[in-house]
Amino acid sequence: MRILIVDDIEKNRTLLERFLKGRGYEVSSAPSGAVALEILNEQAIELVLMDIKMPDMDGFEATRIIKSKNNDQYLPVIFVTALSEEEALEEALAAGGDDFISKPVNLGILLSKIKAHSRIRELHGEVTEKNQQLARHNARLNREHSLISHFFDQAQKNCFVDASVIKSTSVPMSVFNGDTVLVAKRPSGGITVLLGDFTGHGLSAAVGTLPVSQIFFQMIEENAYIGDIARELNRQIGTLLPIEMFFAATLIELSANGDRLMVWHGGMPDAYLLNQETADVTIIRSSHLPLGVRSTDEFDDSVQLYYVNENYKFIAITDGLTEAVNQADEMIDVDLIIQSINNNHDDILNSIINTYQNFSEGVPQADDISLIELNCVEVAGENQSENVKKLQQAIPWQIKVRVEDQEMLNDLAEKVMSLVGYTDVLKEHKGIIHTLISEMYTNAVDHGVLGLHGSEKDSEEAFDAFYAERENRIKKLDGAFIEIELTYGSNGDGSAELVIVMRHNGNTFDVNDKTINDSGLHGRGMDLIEAICDSVIYSDHGRRLTVIYNIASIN
Amino acid sequence: MAISSRFLEEANEFQIVVTGKFDFSLLNEFREAYETAPENAKKFSVDMRSVDMIDSSALGMLLKMKRSLDLADGEISIINCNSNVKKILSIAKFELMFSVQ
Q1: Of the residues A37, A51, A289, A404, which has the maximum number of CB atoms within 10 A of its CB?
Q2: What is the mean pLDDT of residues B63-90?
Q3: What tens digit of pLDDT does each residue of A229-254 get?
Q4: Is the pLDDT of residue A384 over 50?
Q5: CB atoms B88 and A304 under 8 Å
Q6: Are A159 and A182 in contact (CB under 8 A)?
Q7: What value of ipTM does the predicted structure carry?
Q8: Count of the separate structural domains present in chain B
Q9: Which range has highest mean pLDDT (A90-94, A291-295, A372-376)?
């Protein structure tokens, strides 16, 4: 440890220097404040013994400068004062001095003071190091927070947003919300909503949001039923998350035209179904355990179904609100919530939040709070409107497929559709074209090649027999073929057409005989083809069927 | 499994959900589904949310269901149809016998 002695009187310096060196300290000395500052810049001094009265710069001034420079490290300054200078003590301490010792110096006291300040210096060093560590941790935590926020934003990005259909409000306790609100429009129309609450709150609760949102949106893409979504979430949460973590959740499915509301409700507070016309509020009670508790075998995917219309609103709340307490440690009453729902049908969520805030009387929030309000309205599926430009720019193409004999056991329509599926322009018509090709192919195989009659399919027993016979006959075929040719081309006006020709080398019939389209299960097939297509023409004695499907004609 | 079914007791509704291609290959599965409907079922729905193609034999199967359960027009709801499926049902004039949504 190196000590700096600052004194203008050489005798004083020498005395202290000799004593301290004798005790094993390293010593530097300075005759003035100015020289002391220079030495402090150059050497690693750990303690200063400071005289007060010195020419040029006195001890006060020197101390003020030293203290202003040393922020991070504790550099103790001990003033060495004559008794006559005692009144100056106050100023010495104000200048930043840490201690003082009277002249003539009692060497024993000086030594213990040096030891004491040395200990303080060590402790101070440790605290500084800890603070720096803390600052580094904090910086890393902030970086991680922003990274995780990014994940959450991505997870939420897919959410369907339309305030006329769904509103939600969240009051998280910390940066991360352990509550989850996911909303998606199903491709076939209608809305599926998930309101959930992981055990606990903050980041540890929020991590579960990521797998949940991934599963949710993926299953919605497949138009999945909420019972199945609940089942899959239950399985994944049970597998992924530690046993003490589970997910209370309400899954809501509103049908495409907004008239059926299905609810899977597990481990959540009561939800509410409001009829705005009558102001009736139906309480929907949780009927299942939270997700992630039951094993897949025990899992119950049953849902509650309500018939609704545009006058209905569905409201669900997480337990952060229903379990909130006031000063008297009472929980909020159901009637109070129902009352706040009916207070303002146009702004139910804020009305409930206001009620909660008045009720809680300033008792701090103990869990995340989230609310959703779903309007039972029609939500149409994906836009199927025509893109005229897309049609005009599409290049014409042709596909020809031929099947022979036993190949007719295959579902040709399915295989042709997998080819057609790659073409962008037909995407929105795939279902119809699939039906069309399927009907034409079935006719060609059953009636053309095999000579079976539709009426044979009429009763159920006959239906099974029909398909057995069909398979039988196909297996015996020798030299039969069916050819299908699809030609796509766009017209100048932005419309486009698909010409389908189905040709076979089987039975013929009188194309002018209208009675050939018998009724029953099969006749409908031909009716469908005629209703769907602009033009349907049989030729080659019934062995060739040519239809024209107008791409712009479907609405 | 292309077909699943369930009975929602409180609402008294029997639901059948069909997925994928709704054609003659589902004949038996579909029939078995509606045959499990309990006697006290008051409402019936066929959910077409994931049906992308429907052919004339499926139309026949729906008619069979109606006849076999002895239900009046509109007592079976065909729900969550995409526009292609709706178009086919409309061509077949199914709105007259089913509640198509």
Answers
A1: A51
A2: 90
A3: 999 999 999 888 888 888 999 999 99
A4: no
A5: no
A6: yes
A7: 0.81
A8: 1
A9: A372-376
Tokens of A423: 């073409």
Q: Copy the structure tokens of residue B82.
A: 């995409």
Phi, psi for residue A232 in degrees, rounded to 5:
-70, -40
Strands A304-307 and B3-8: unpaired
| Tens-place pLDDT, residues A352-378 | 999 998 898 888 888 889 999 999 999
Selected for mutation to probe chain B from A438, A439, A461 (highest B CB count within 10 Å) is A438
Strands (E), A392-479: 397-404
Contact A87, A123 (CB under 8 A): no
| CATH number, position B71 | 3.30.750.24
CA distance A274 to A341: 8
Q: Is A190 exposed, middle or buried (0-12, 13-18, 19+ CB in 10 A)?
A: buried
Q: Quick check: A432 and B84 CB within 8 A?
A: yes
Residue A373's alpha-carbon distances to A169, A181, A456, in angstroms, are 9, 11, 54
A390 to chain B, any CB pair closer than 8 A? The answer is: no
- Which structural domain, as residue segments, surrounds residue B34? 3-100
Q: How far is B77 from chain A (nearest CA, A)?
A: 11
Both tokens assigned to B99: 């509640």
Per-residue pLDDT, A390: 60
Which long-range contacts (C-beta less than 8 Å, at least 24 apart) are formed by A349-353?
A349/A167, A349/A168, A349/A169, A349/A315, A349/A373, A350/A169, A352/A315, A352/A317, A352/A321, A353/A169, A353/A171
**Which residues are within 8 A (CB) of A392 and not within 5 positions of it... i.e. 6 or more apart?**
A490, A494
For residue range B17-51, what is the model confidence (pLDDT) as tens digits? 998 889 888 988 999 999 999 988 989 999 998 89
The average confidence (pLDDT) of chain A is 86
pLDDT at A427: 73
Instruction: Identify the helix (H) or strand (E) that includes residue A194.
Output: strand A191-198
Give the homologous superfamily in CATH for domain A158-375: PPM-type phosphatase domain (3.60.40.10)
pLDDT surpasses 90 at A201:
no
Residue A82, CA atoms < 13 Å, CB-side half-sphere: 6
Lookup result for tokens 């409201």? A315
The residue behind tokens 């509020």 is A281
Give the residue, A422 or A337, on which the prediction is more confident.
A337
* CB A340 within 8 Å of CB A351: yes
Report residue A177's pLDDT band, with 50, 70 and 90 as the boundaries: confident
Backbone dihedral region for residue A184 (phi beyond 0: left; psi -120 to 50: alpha; all else: beta): beta
Chain A residues 520-539 within an 8 A CB cutoff of chain B: 520-522, 524-525, 527-528, 531-532
The architecture that CATH gives domain A2-127 is 3-Layer(aba) Sandwich (3.40)
Alpha-carbon span B56 to A439, nearest angstrom: 7
Q: Domain A388-553 maps to which CATH number in 3.40.718.10, 1.10.3210.10, 3.30.565.10, 3.40.50.1240?
A: 3.30.565.10
CB B98 within 8 A of CB B86: no
A247-254 and A496-504 beta bridge pairing: unpaired
